[in-house]
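Long-time lurker, first post. I've been practising inverse folding by hand and with some scripts of my own, and I keep getting stuck on stretches where the structure tokens seem ambiguous. Below is the full token string for one chain I'm working on. Before anyone asks, I'm not after the true native sequence, just a reasonable design that respects the backbone. If someone could post their per-position residues I'd love to compare against what I wrote down in my notebook.
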């Protein structure tokens, strides 16, 4: 009977050792899971920071592009106004020169005035080309 009791004791010790080993494995697994959870959480936070930075960058880019567009529109209006003023001045000069040509008595005066008229018309054409280029660039 002693042998049976000793076998029972050995069985209980084995069972205790198995339970202790299983408990240690469970603790290791729990620690592994905690570390993995922390790692995943850190990665999610890192990705969120990256996404927020990208959103902030896009917002700033849109603001800058909006400002650039607004400035380009203002520049275009200024160029159009300038071109309109130059066109008006050029037409006035052309009219004045044409009137002087009609009222001039000397042939030399007529030729000089005709050259001035051609120069004014060339200048007017150059202004139109500059405005067209500025509009295309805007």
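-- Answer (accepted) --
I ran through it position by position. Result:
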């Amino acid at each position: 009977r002693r042998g049976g009791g000793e076998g029972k004791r050995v069985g209980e010790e084995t069972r205790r050792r198995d339970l202790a080993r299983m408990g240690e494995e469970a603790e290791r697994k729990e620690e592994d899971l905690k570390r993995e959870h922390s790692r995943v959480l850190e990665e999610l936070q890192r990705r969120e920071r990256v996404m927020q930075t990208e959103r902030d960058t896009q917002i700033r880019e849109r603001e800058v592009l909006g400002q650039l567009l607004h400035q380009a529109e203002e520049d275009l209006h200024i160029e159009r106004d300038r071109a309109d003023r130059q066109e008006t001045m050029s037409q006035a000069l052309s009219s004045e020169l044409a009137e002087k040509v009609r009222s001039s008595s000397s042939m030399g005066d007529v030729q000089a005035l005709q050259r001035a008229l051609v120069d004014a018309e060339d200048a007017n054409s150059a202004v139109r080309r500059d405005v067209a280029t500025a509009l295309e660039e805007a």
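A couple of notes from the structure itself: The helical segments are 2-103, 107-137. The chain has a mean pLDDT of 86. Happy to go over any region you disagree with.
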